[in-house]
Amino acid sequence: MSLEYAGWDGTFAKVTGTGNDFVVIDDTARRIDYATIHSLIPVLCHRNFGVGSDGAIFVQQLSPTDIRWHFYNADGSRAEMCGNGARCAARFVFERQLVQGRSFNLHTEAGIIRIQSDTDDEIQVELTRPKQHRSCYTIKTIKTEYLLSSINTGVPHAVLRVSDIESFDLLNTAPEIRFHEQYPNGTNVNIYERIDTDTIRVRTYERGVEGETLSCGTGGVAAAIIACLDDSEVSTEVRVITNGGELLISFDKELNCVSMKGEAHILFWGSITPELINSQFTPMEKEV
């Protein structure tokens, strides 16, 4: 397969938002063949054989105030929404001056979200209304039972409150929940610990990455909402501390207005060579 065949010239930006990193690609010319390009994503995102990232984002300009994206997880699967990815896409859009002013609408598979920014690095995302909120239920696995809540903040999230987040074995525990029959399409898995009335610490195992990431924006939103509405642990304005940095989550109790604010940075610009595309490397599936 050639880059020309996929309709991509090989150029990209590497962008990070609180440690969640993405390869972002400009498709304003609308030349990319998405039926073909998706098969390249696992290699592109691989940290040893590709650029290395948690996902790939392709942006298209619809108008001076509207951008559409195509978002892929690192395994090549599509995702409806990604909070940190939205901030990273916005950072790219502002840098390339693909919109007029400091705000625009981002068209995602979860719906249209509003992006605004007063500075290059700090970006606010107004999310679609969360749905499928389910409070305090138990699931059984081979090893144990878990008391969870869940909510869809653009993508599905299961949330578990823990007393010692640093010692919790997320990598071994999360796959049992992520692939549980309760979630036919799978789910992201978040654990949180209350730090103060306005602060929680969050770790996330991401569906599609199949591992823990340094940060997950929609996961931070999900954990903040569950911590407030289900567990009465925090207020409606929550500082979320992740391994990759901090997010500020705000919402009303009816969940009509939900926003996330955090940083996004362009790390570098680059282009891939045909060697990456023509390599025989095939990522091995992880056992769960």
Please describe the topology of this protein:
Blueprint: H1 3-6, E1 11-17, E2 20-26, H2 34-37, H3 41-45, E3 55-63, E4 66-73, H4 83-95, E5 103-108, E6 111-116, E7 122-126, E8 131-140, E9 145-152, E10 156-161, H5 170-178, E11 188-196, E12 199-206, E13 211-213, H6 217-229, E14 237-242, E15 245-251, E16 258-263, E17 265-271, H7 274-278
Parallel strand pairs: 2-3, 4-5, 10-11, 12-14
Antiparallel strand pairs: 1-2, 1-17, 3-4, 5-6, 6-7, 7-16, 8-9, 9-10, 11-12, 12-13, 14-15, 15-16
Using only C-alpha atoms, the radius of gyration works out to 19 Å
CATH superfamily of the largest domain: Diaminopimelate Epimerase, Chain A, domain 1
CATH fold-level name of the largest domain: Diaminopimelate Epimerase, Chain A, domain 1
The average pLDDT is: 92
Major sheet description: 17 strands, mixed
Distance between the terminal alpha carbons, to the nearest Å?
Answer: 31 Å
CATH class of the largest domain: Alpha Beta
Shape estimate: globular
Number of helical stretches of at least 4 residues: 7
Q: How many domains is the backbone divided into?
A: 2
Approximately how much helix is present in the residues?
Answer: 10-25%
| Spans where pLDDT lies below 50 across 5 or more residues | none
Element string (H = helix, E = strand): HEEHHEEHEEEEEEHEEEHEEEEH
